[in-house]
Design goal:
The chain contains ten helices and twelve strands. The protein is an alpha+beta fold and 279 residues long.
């Protein structure tokens, strides 16, 4: 399944990490269940194809010709595509998502919420509807991205500076590869754990503890993907897991597979929030 990434306009780079696009047609190439490995990100997703349903519940997750704010995810999720499978998205830097003033990001966890349900401004809703119609009528990827980018540049006027406590905590978690306690994190930031939790979940959408687990898992996944790194119990201990059983449990939660099976399949590409894998 082809996946493409693009760099945003310099004006938008302070909060947009990248643009991405993915497409397939199940009528030509069978598209079965696909899984999303969570990365903690939040995306604006434009569904240019047909409906996408959650394989677990069967409910519509992304409606046809609709734009949504999606994520963050804290577990592996499978989706089923029928017909045309095509998305265009904009991914935001962690802690720099501009939606928190409309909705606490914790309310987006494991969900996709229509954009027009978040914004109250009539002008924004009208521009959004025009964008959705325009994207459905344009076939060239470059023109689609330009169309979306013009909208995002207008949206940039709503940008607010990120919370320094949140951005600093994200840096400390990533520097430690997820191996830092919430107490140590709060102490380094000179803030009480409860206040850190409240700020973090509002601006990131996940708790600091959950994000530490995701960060540690992605470190283990990166090591597993390298042919020269340890595996099994050695990998678990190298990444700070109590034992190999704990590592296996985390891999099943975040990838739907054991580390051994994941290493053998080596999923390639990205879909929305993390690596794309076939079931």
């Amino acid at each position: 399944m082809p996946f493409y990434q693009f760099q945003p306009h310099p004006i938008l780079r302070r909060f947009v990490q990248s643009y991405w696009a993915i497409r397939a047609d199940s009528l030509i190439t069978p598209v079965s269940d696909h899984g999303v490995i969570p990365g903690g990100y939040i995306d604006i997703v434009f569904n240019i194809g047909d409906q996408i349903c959650s394989s677990d519940s069967g409910r519509v997750f992304f409606d046809r010709a609709e734009s949504s704010v999606a994520g963050p995810f804290d577990r592996f999720r499978r989706f089923r595509a029928k017909g045309k499978f095509e998305f265009l998205g904009a991914r935001f830097h962690l802690g720099r998502t501009p939606f928190f003033q409309y909705i606490p990001l914790r309310e987006l966890r494991n969900r996709a919420v229509p954009l027009d349900a978040i914004w109250k401004e009539k002008d924004l809703k009208a521009e959004l509807k025009a964008l959705e119609i325009g994207l459905a009528q344009i076939s060239e990827m470059e023109r689609r991205i330009a169309h979306m980018e013009r909208f995002l540049i207008k949206f940039a006027q709503l940008w607010q500076e990120p919370d320094t406590v949140v951005t600093r905590s994200l840096s400390l978690i990533e520097e430690s590869k997820g191996r830092i306690s919430i107490e140590a994190l709060a102490s380094a930031l000179q803030i009480i754990p409860r206040q850190l939790e409240r700020k973090f979940t509002r601006r990131v959408g996940l708790s600091p503890k959950t994000f530490c687990r995701l960060t540690r898992f992605h470190h283990a996944k990166s090591m597993l993907e390298s042919n020269h790194e340890p595996s099994g119990a050695d990998l678990a201990y190298a990444c700070g897991y109590y034992d190999q059983t704990h590592l296996i449990q985390e891999f099943r939660l975040f990838t739907g597979q054991t580390p051994t099976r994941y290493e053998r399949l080596q999923p390639v590409g990205f879909f929305l929030y993390g690596a794309l894998s076939n079931r």
